[in-house]
Specification:
Length: 103
C-alpha cells in the first residue's frame, strides 16, 4: 500500500520524475528493505518490476508530457522545443521525431 501510494505520488507530479526503486524506498522510508529484502516481498517485487521505469521509458514519458505542455500553452510543437522542455540531448532527436510522427 505504501509503495503503491509513493508510485502514484511520483507519477502525479507536475513535472515528471522517474519512478525508481530508490525513490520509492526513500519516500516510504523502506529503502533498505526494498534494496536488500525485496525477494521476501513477492507481491511488492512484482509490482515494482512492472512500475519502475527504465531511462528509455522515462524519456518517452517526458517527451509526451512536453508535447502536452506545449499544446496546452498554445505553442507550436517542434522537436527542439520538446527536447529543451524534456531536458534531452541531441542524441534523442530521432526518438522525439518518432513520437511526434506516431502521435
Amino acid at each position: 500500500m505504501q509503495v503503491e501510494k509513493a508510485v502514484q505520488e511520483i507519477l502525479q507530479k507536475d513535472k515528471p520524475e522517474r519512478v525508481t526503486l530508490r525513490k520509492v524506498g526513500v519516500m516510504t522510508g523502506l529503502k533498505a528493505l526494498l534494496e536488500h529484502k525485496l525477494d521476501k516481498l513477492p507481491l511488492t517485487k512484482t509490482y515494482l518490476q512492472e512500475t519502475v521505469e527504465s531511462v528509455e521509458m522515462f524519456q518517452d514519458r517526458r517527451i509526451r508530457w512536453s508535447i502536452e505542455l506545449l499544446e496546452k500553452q498554445g505553442e507550436e510543437v517542434k522537436a527542439w522545443k520538446i527536447m529543451r522542455i524534456a531536458g534531452l540531448r541531441n542524441n534523442c532527436l530521432e526518438k522525439v521525431e518518432n513520437i511526434l510522427y506516431y502521435k
